[in-house]
Structure formats: structure tokens, C-alpha cells
Structure to design on (475 residues):
């Protein structure tokens, strides 16, 4: 066993996809470019206004809780987390402290502590010189916070967890969870210990990509180990991640919960969730689509796909839906071929040429057209080489696979009678190779098949050629 054991617990925030904000009817639009348009007196924190709980946001979190097998709170309430900053005009953030909506649950074998609901802050920017700007479009957007137990032990495991969580949120439609857009933000708590007790943890904030999560956690683990080796103590603090220097840096000493003077928000009703019919476990459960981990099992077991193809499809929801339309009514062999061509040729071209990928259209390729290419391969009408060309064309032109193949002269000749005539000719013109083959030289058969391909200008189905040659030569 290694001398030092790293421990990581994650706190992940995600902006929820709802029509309106958490406590008012201002629009929740993460794509709004003009500042301060989706605002109202409530999310601007004007005195005398009253918040109203957004049911859709509560439901999103409860569906998450149901999906991960967590416990849905019977009783829940919202609390005020008090602090001063220009992005939080009320002087407090509405969050949940003692009674989170969800407790427990598991994702990727990582136990969850809780999932709760709060409101996002405004977006401030300090890049403009000697003043700062604040945009309140984001203020009051429903924000889900998910906290894990300290049970993660490597940077890779932390990233794998975050990716699976992102996939789950996208699958449930609760959040787009795009990290580049700040819709999903990761904070990592990291400690290292050489005893059976936890070491002192530091918190690294605002990790905005999976790469940043991986690098920051690895960096902190190494920093802790070096400090411990030198006999130094780790200071409990909050650190930031410097993307350019690839380093964490000290931001502030860690605040404690009591610094925030949490108390129940008197403006909001307490909720007896068990008494709200639409939040019944039965209905929540029914509202769940197939979950990523169930889908992985189905793709491997029912479709018989390779692990690698399964993972790619399950992790790329649009591709998976496209795949499922393409395979309707196909046998196992064809399904495997569809997965192969989709995850290699189609994905390759889509990435390289920056094609739009939706669940019904990749570039201009529709699922049925990909299925047609595979049918043509199965019927021996198209070689695997030809299939690649047809797919490349169909992605851009949207033309029918059969038409493309005919136009490009890629249809393989399968007419036995016609091929047999050609082969008779090849045999009579290549007496030497025929004799050599009959004397036991296998390579001569390859040569003859090659001559057959030449005679048909490459349009013969090589498998069929071989069969007919063997037949003729055995006479
Ligand atoms: P705090 O009170 O400092 O906010 P919490 O107990 O609420 O700490 O935990 C916050 C996060 O830190 C959780 O994700 C938890 O799993 C993680 N955590 C707690 N202790 C440790 C530790 N010793 N090492 C790594 N992570 C930890
Ligand atoms: Mg905490």
C-alpha cells in the first residue's frame, strides 16, 4: 500500500433548466447575452418583495434524488445564508442547511451526502479597469448543490464521478450541465493522510472543466505529499485554480458554517413533501427515463455491443438516440455494424467537419440512411471500403445510400452468371497461375481473384469471386 492516502469529497453546483427563476417569474435563460434583462424586484433583492418557490426546480432535484436512490425529505425548508457581496443584493443567499431535499444516494459507487436547492448569484466582472460590473440575469437562477462523502481517492475517480453526474443531469433534463458555460461548477475538497485519520482538507473552487478537476486534484495531492514529507502542516483554506500556471493558489482561510448565521427563511413556507401528491415516490419514479447505468447494461446485453461502443453511445445522448432509430428491426450482426460505422466513420467525420449532431440528423445523414448502408453491406452489394465512401457522401449530401453507391460505381457485382462468365475468361487467360494453384500454390488463387477484380473494374464482390473460382478450379 502507498504511504499516503488521498481523500476527495466533491461539491458540485448545477444551474437547473427551468422556465423561470427559483423564487420569481423572471426568465431563466443562460443564453441571454444582454445584461440585466431577465430581472425583477424579487431577484434584484428589493425590500418588501416576497419569494415564491419554483415547483419545477424542486421536482428536478427530487427526480435526481430518486434516480440516485437517495432519501427524499419528508420535511424540508429553505434557509438564509448571510454574507455580503455585490452579487447577492439581499445580503443573503436562499439555500438549504439543515433539511436538504435529498439525503444519501450513490453514483458510480460514490456515496452522496446530500442534494439541495439554492439560488445562483449575479455574475460580476472585474475586468474593466477601476470599476466592476454586475449582471443580474443569473441572480436567482435555481441552483442544485450535490455533496459527496469523502470517499473518492484519486483525481481520475473524481473526474469519472463528475462526468457520470453530468450525464445523469442531461439524461433527466434537469440541467444542460455545460461546464464551459458555468452551468456545472465543481469544488474539490482534498486531503492526504498517512494515518487512519483524515488529513487537513483544502477546498479548490470553481473548476470549470473536467481537465481542471483532474489537474487541480492531482496538483493538490502532490503538494500535500511534498509538504508532509518536509514535516509541514497543511493549512485548511480555500484555494483557486490557475488555468495558465497549472497551479492552485491560496484564496482565503476557510469560513465556518457559523460565520453565515444560517436561519430558516421566514418568507418561505416549510414543505411537507410527503403531502404533495405530485412529489409522490411513485410519480417521481415514473417520470424517470432510462438511466445511464441501465442503458449501459442494455447496450451490452441486448445489443451485444463492445464496451467501448457502449460507453461512447451512452455518454453521447444524441448519438445513442440516433443509433436506436437506426437499429429498429435489425438483426444482431447489423446492429453491431451500425454501432461500428456510427462510432468510427460517422463520429470521425462529424468531429472533423464540425457537423451538427442531433438525435435525428448527423450532418445530413438520417438514421434510416445509415441503416440502408448496412443493409447493402449485408446483401453483399457494398464493400466495407465502399460503405465508407457512401457514408462520407451521405453525411454531406443527404442523398440516398443506394443512389450514391450507384453514382460512384460502388455497387458490387453479385450476378453469379455474369461473374462466372468473366471467371471462365480469366482462367483461360492465366493458364500458368491455374496450374500453379492446382499444384498447391495458394497465392495463385489470390492472384486470380485479383485478375477477376480487374476484369470487373473492382465492382465484383470478392467473397463471391472466390467462391466461383474455387468451384471452377475444382472441376
Ligand atoms: P465543511 O464543514 O468544511 O464545509 P463538510 O463536512 O461540509 O465540510 O464537507 C464538505 C466537503 O468536503 C464534502 O464533500 C466532504 O466529503 C468533503 N470532506 C470532508 N472532510 C474531508 C477530508 N478530510 N478530505 C477530503 N474531503 C473531505
Ligand atoms: Mg459544507
Amino acid at each position: 500500500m502507498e504511504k499516503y492516502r488521498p481523500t476527495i469529497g466533491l461539491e458540485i453546483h448545477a444551474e437547473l433548466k427551468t422556465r423561470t427563476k427559483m423564487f420569481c417569474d423572471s426568465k431563466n435563460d443562460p443564453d441571454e447575452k444582454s445584461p440585466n434583462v431577465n430581472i425583477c424586484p424579487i431577484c434584484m433583492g428589493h425590500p418588501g418583495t416576497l419569494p415564491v418557490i419554483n415547483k419545477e426546480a424542486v421536482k428536478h432535484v427530487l427526480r435526481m434524488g430518486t434516480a440516485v436512490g437517495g432519501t427524499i425529505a419528508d420535511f424540508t425548508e429553505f434557509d438564509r445564508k448571510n454574507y455580503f457581496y455585490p452579487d447577492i443584493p439581499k445580503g443573503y443567499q436562499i439555500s438549504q442547511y439543515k433539511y436538504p431535499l435529498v439525503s444519501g444516494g450513490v453514483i458510480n459507487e460514490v456515496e452522496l451526502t446530500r442534494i439541495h436547492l439554492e439560488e445562483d448569484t449575479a455574475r460580476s466582472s472585474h475586468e474593466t479597469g477601476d470599476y466592476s460590473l454586475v449582471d443580474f440575469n443569473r441572480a436567482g437562477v435555481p441552483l442544485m448543490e450535490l455533496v459527496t462523502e469523502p470517499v473518492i481517492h484519486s483525481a481520475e475517480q473524481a473526474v469519472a464521478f463528475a462526468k457520470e453526474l453530468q450525464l445523469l443531469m442531461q439524461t433527466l433534463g434537469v440541467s444542460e450541465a455545460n461546464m464551459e458555460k458555468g452551468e456545472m461548477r465543481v469544488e474539490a475538497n482534498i486531503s492526504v493522510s498517512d494515518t487512519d485519520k483524515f488529513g487537513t482538507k483544502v477546498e479548490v473552487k470553481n473548476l470549470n472543466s473536467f481537465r481542471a478537476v483532474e489537474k487541480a486534484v492531482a496538483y493538490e495531492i502532490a503538494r500535500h505529499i511534498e509538504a508532509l514529507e518536509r514535516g509541514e502542516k497543511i493549512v485548511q483554506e480555500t484555494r483557486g485554480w490557475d488555468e495558465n500556471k497549472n497551479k492552485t493558489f491560496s484564496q482565503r482561510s476557510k469560513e465556518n458554517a457559523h460565520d453565515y448565521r444560517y436561519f430558516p427563511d421566514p418568507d418561505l413556507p416549510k414543505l411537507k413533501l410527503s403531502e404533495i401528491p405530485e412529489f409522490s415516490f411513485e410519480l417521481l419514479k415514473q417520470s424517470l427515463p432510462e438511466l445511464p447505468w441501465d442503458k449501459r447494461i442494455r447496450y451490452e446485453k441486448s445489443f451485444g455491443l463492445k464496451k467501448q461502443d457502449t460507453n461512447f453511445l451512452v455518454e453521447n445522448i444524441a448519438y445513442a438516440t440516433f443509433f436506436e432509430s437506426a437499429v429498429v428491426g435489425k438483426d444482431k450482426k447489423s446492429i453491431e455494424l451500425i454501432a461500428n460505422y456510427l462510432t468510427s466513420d460517422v463520429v470521425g467525420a462529424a468531429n472533423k467537419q464540425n457537423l451538427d449532431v442531433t438525435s435525428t440528423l448527423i450532418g445530413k445523414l438520417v438514421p434510416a440512411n445509415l441503416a440502408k448502408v448496412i443493409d447493402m453491406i449485408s446483401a453483399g452489394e457494398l464493400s466495407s471500403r465502399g460503405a465508407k465512401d457512401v457514408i462520407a457522401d451521405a453525411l454531406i449530401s443527404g442523398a440516398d445510400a443506394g443512389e450514391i453507391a450507384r453514382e460512384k460505381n460502388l455497387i458490387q457485382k453479385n450476378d453469379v452468371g455474369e461473374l462466372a462468365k468473366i471467371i471462365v475468361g480469366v482462367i483461360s487467360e492465366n493458364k500458368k497461375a491455374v496450374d500453379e494453384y492446382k499444384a498447391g500454390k495458394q497465392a495463385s488463387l489470390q492472384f486470380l481473384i485479383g485478375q477477376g477484380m480487374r476484369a470487373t473494374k473492382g465492382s465484383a464482390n470478392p467473397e463471391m469471386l472466390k467462391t466461383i473460382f474455387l468451384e471452377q478450379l475444382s472441376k
